[in-house]
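B., you asked whether I could sanity-check this one before it goes into the benchmark set. Here's the sequence:
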Amino acid sequence: FGLSRTKPRHLASPIGYCPEGGEESRATGLQDLLEKKLMEVATGGKMQIMISMFMMWMFGSTISVYLLMFIGQGLYTSLSYLVGVGKVFAPFENMRVSLTLYKLVYIGIGLGQLGVVLYKVYAVGLFPNYASDWIDLVPPQPHDTFIMA
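And here's what the prediction gave me:
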C-alpha cells in the first residue's frame, strides 16, 4: 500500500475542539448552562396560565361548586407561587449569576396566573364592583318629620 511514502497533511481541528481555551470555554459553557436552567425554572409556570384560561372558559359564566373550587385552587396556587420565590431560587443563590431578571420573570408569570383567576371572579359577578354591591354598608337616612293622620 505504500503508506509510509504519503506526505502528512494538515487536518482541521474537529468541531468543538479548542486547543488553547479549554478551561475558559468550559467555564463559559457552564455559565450558559446555568443561565438556561434559571430561565427554565423562571418560565416553568407559563403553560399553567394557558391551562387556567382554557379551564375558566370551559366553566362558562355560571356559578357552580366546581367553579368555586377551581377559583379557590387558582387563588391558592398563584399566591403560593408568588410567596415561594425565595424557596424556588434558593439553590441558585451562591452562584455567580444575578437572579433579579429571573425572579422578575417568575413573579410576572405568577401575577399573570392571579390575573386570570381574578378576571374570572369579576366575570362571574363575585367581585363587588358596582355601588349596589356596597348598599349594606350605607347607613339609612334619619327621618326629620313624622306625619300622623
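One thing to flag: The longest helix spans residues 100-124. Otherwise nothing jumped out at me.
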